[in-house]
Amino acid sequence: MPRSVNHVASRARRKRVLELAKGFFGRKKNVWTVAKNAVEKGLVYAYRDRKAKKRDFRALWIARINAGARLHGMSYSEFIGKVKKARVDLNRKVLADLAMNHPEAFEAVVKKIK
Predict the structure, then answer these.
(1) Rounded distance, CA 25 to CA 111, Å?
(2) Could you tell me the CA-to-CA distances from 85 to 10, 20, 65, 76, 114 in Å, in that order?
(3) SS3 for 86?
(4) DSSP of 33-99, one letter per residue?
(5) Would you put residue 26 in left (φ > 0), alpha (ψ -120 to 50) or beta?
(6) What is the pLDDT along the chain (114 residues), one digit of tens a residue?
(7) How far is Cα 83 from Cα 85, in angstroms, rounded to an integer?
(8) Predicted TM-score (pTM) of this structure
(9) Cα(73)–Cα(85) distance, rounded to whole angstroms?
(10) How far apart are CA 69 and CA 89, in angstroms?
(11) Under 8 Å CB-to-CB from 2, ≥6 apart: which residues?
(12) What does the alpha-carbon distance between residue 32 and residue 52 come to, in Å, rounded to a whole number?
């Protein structure tokens, strides 16, 4: 009896991986073995960096709040401590946006907590 091979499924699997490799440079976009490795690596990076993105943005917000607070003679830790004590319910994302784009509103927050 002849050997049965499911070409439909294997072709679909390869096609799916090569679709994900669209836009890659050189052989990474059209050679199956190279593309498969590149796509796997890319998916690993994507998973890892979804977690890292949260850390990166928090660090950015802290840097912006620190810069805004120092314009008003306070350090970041001092500022956050007073915000918590005054029970101002603004998270770091909002405080960073105020410090960067709306300095007068940030100044109002500083006056409220002093």
Answers:
(1) 54
(2) 61, 50, 17, 14, 10
(3) coil
(4) HHHHHHHHHHHHHHHHHHHHHHHHHHHHHHHHHHHHHHTTT--HHHHHHHHHHTT----HHHHHHHH
(5) left
(6) 788 889 999 999 999 999 999 999 999 999 999 999 999 999 999 999 999 999 999 999 999 999 999 999 999 999 999 999 999 999 999 999 999 999 999 999 999 998
(7) 5
(8) 0.80
(9) 18
(10) 17
(11) none
(12) 30
Q: Which domains does the chain have, with CATH numbers?
A: 7-113 (1.10.1900.20)
- Say which residue the tokens 């802290």 belong to: 62
19 token code pair: 């679709």
The single-letter code of the amino acid at 17 is V
Radius of gyration of the chain (CA): 25
Q: Are 65 and 95 in contact (CB under 8 A)?
A: yes
| Residues present in the chain in total | 114
Q: Which helix (H) or strand (E) holds 6?
A: none
How far the first Cα of the chain sits from its last, in Å, is 87
Q: At what angle do helices 103-113 and 76-85 cross, to 10 degrees?
A: 60
Nearest to 106 by CA among 78, 64, 77, 75: 64
